[in-house]
């Protein structure tokens, strides 16, 4: 009986060792979304983790649903968690304990309604949101008449623009673009003709290098604005505020990531992009017309000292 127990114990220990080894060898799954800096950054992060000895797999994923997917273990890390778009979804999973807030980049973000500078000539009082609302007729189109048209980002970006329009009583209809490229294509056409347009934009990205413009100034963001109707200037609805200014850009990982990939997790906790890093990643593709993989290789070559320090135990 003692011998049998000993054999069973050895088999169990061996089995657990095999399982643990398989887990460690699983590829790190990094999602791919639908904006340029994220795509380039995913490749950058992946190559850094490969340099640290990990296997990496890239998986296309809905940027709005990816936090639930990470909670369920379908993806391992998200390296661009923008507070304005995804903060609520991300923090919900962190609170549940299935996602870890692994790191915060130095980059500060803003995501908001935006207009080209020439629009101010036709709409005095901008960038105030009430001035914009008073000029809604400037933005009327056949698909939104009699309301002005706001061109939002893809619906999966979870911006809550319809709720904001309702909460602030704005005379606008939200039309969602299918992609970031669709946003920039419409901006280019409108700017060429000096036609009034108001659309979703964010920083850091490459647009500020091409166009002079400003974010619309809505009532200041505050905690609870999107969840508690009793707060804010309209006690009947939520979303009666703007997006966060100087919002965070974080890295989140699946709760099992540190145990399955301890060496990679140590690196992930050191990865730290600045506003310039994010802007350059976007510029290399959107302005310089490089392929995503080539843009990632260029960023890595030009920032070798930075990312190699993240691999060092002293970094």
Description:
Helix content is 43%, strand content 17%. With 315 residues, the chain is of the alpha/beta class. The protein has two domains: 28-108 and 247-311, Periplasmic binding protein-like II (D-Maltodextrin-Binding Protein, domain 2, 3-Layer(aba) Sandwich), CATH 3.40.190; 110-215, D-Maltodextrin-Binding Protein, domain 2 (3-Layer(aba) Sandwich). The strands form three sheets. It has a five-stranded mixed sheet with strand order 7-6-8-5-9, with helices on both faces. The chain is globular and about 60 Å long. The model is unreliable at 1-22 (pLDDT under 50).
Quick description:
With 315 residues, the protein is α/β, with parallel strands linked by helices. It has helices at 2-25, 36-51, 66-71, 83-96, 119-122, 129-134, 161-167, 180-192, 207-210, 257-260, 262-268, 275-286, 292-302, 304-311, and strands spanning 28-32, 56-60, 77-82, 99-104, 110-116, 148-152, 172-176, 198-203, 213-215, 249-254. The chain has 2 domains: 28-108 and 247-311, Periplasmic binding protein-like II (D-Maltodextrin-Binding Protein, domain 2), CATH 3.40.190.10; 110-215, Glycine betaine-binding periplasmic protein, domain 2 (D-Maltodextrin-Binding Protein, domain 2).
